[in-house]
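Dear support,

I submitted the protein below through the web form. The confirmation email said the job was done, but the results page showed an empty box. After a refresh the structure appeared. I'm attaching both so you can tell me whether what I see now is the final result or a partial one.
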Amino acid sequence: MFIRKNKNRNASFSVQIVQKNRRKNKVIKTVGVAHTQREEELLTLLAKTELERLQGSQSLFVEHDDLVVDNFVESISNDHFQIVGSELILGKIYKKIGFPQGGSCDYFKRLVLCRLVYPGSKLKTVDYFRQHLNLDVSVYSIYRFLDELASGLKQEIEGISFNYTKKILRGRIGVVFYDMTTLYFEASEEDDYRITGFSKDGKHQQPQIMIGLLVSSHGYPIGYQIFEGNTSETKTLIPVLESFQKKFDLDIPIIIADAALLSQKNIEALRAEHYEYILGGRLKNETDAIKEKILGLEIKEGKPCELSSPNGRLIITYSSKRAHNDRKNREKGLRRLEKKIASGKLSKKHINNRGYNKYLKLTGDINIAIDYEKFRADGLWDGLKGYVTNTRLSKNKVIEHYSQLWHVEKAFRISKTDLRIRPIYHRLKRRIEAHISICFTAYTIYKELERSLRKNKISLSPEKAIENIKEIRQLNYLLPKSKQFKSKLLKPNHIQSQLLNMKI
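What the results page shows now:
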């Protein structure tokens, strides 16, 4: 038996194994058809291996192994690799929570997973689809899809997230945490939705919207509400609570929010609706009588004191660490003011209650000076923090509940940094709403990933886990003879193996 190469009419070569029998050549096997020189070399090596097998010798042609491997590697391109970690792990979490799947919802799922592993603009999303998922989509098809989804999407996503959070908390949502943030747009023109206002991102000249976010204990998401960009924070709490009360028949929980939401109108509305609350207290805004009582207390670290106030119980704590930071910040602000006065950059218009400008005073008709007596008087409040509540919880329980408010702040940080919810590049209201729904869904998956890592005792942050997840790839290749497409998961590293084997 021997190997024969036949040149075909289309300049290709057939590589065959032939046996000579009485002056006639009989084709035993056609190994394949080569269209290039490299394919011809590879088929020749395969033919030699097959010839040895037929002759009863199982030599692996060791001297040719390097060439076989080299030929195979040479044939691989970036198009053959596909990121699959997001689907294998994050996709499993998406399914477990119960988010919509199948049909056009698979498009939504891909946009959500992309937001977790490669957050960015929709143009970057298109690049991700093309380079890593081998899906050729246009940015306009994504926009059309967002238009279709916008109508009922928010309500469906919120319902699924709420029910899953309730399941995790064993059917009871006893406390809820509320906070607001601003999301700015990469645009210069306002409309009736995107309006300039006080920006928490420092983008005061750019149009923005406001988002009120409601989470349960440990930061599990409940829902969100979008407001026009110039809405006052104090006017958002009651509409959000009323909205969720109606939607989900929510048992009346304890409302926990920071001092920014503490307006007399809000407190009266909470009382009228029989809500219990724990709110951050602004001690310096209390009446003179109460302030005098506070400064007369001997408050020790770890031993909170309590007074009665018009809005309920006023609990006051002291922290030496907080006192150190308060003093440091005041002194830093004072030095900045002294520097500005020395440069002559301050005028009457700077005398206001914004920040450390409250230490400025007017002497004579035109001279601006620092009121050092006011600066020293402020030092009496260093380290003190107040909480206003109408609950019957113990002082320590009130403080413990309020201390969890960082979970909602963390939710905003995750959304703004890891999920890149802002800046927003959309102009149409329905697309803005769809974009935020995608980010909210991604945040829900992020929180469940965090819980799964903890449950499986994998000491990784969700950020580090996602970094490893997005590097899990598979190789897609075509068998030369059968023309069958096959896929093979590339060997994962130790951390990736842990994540793939994680119980979700």
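Response: this is the final, complete result; the empty box was a page-load delay. DSSP finds 16 helices and 16 strands in the chain.
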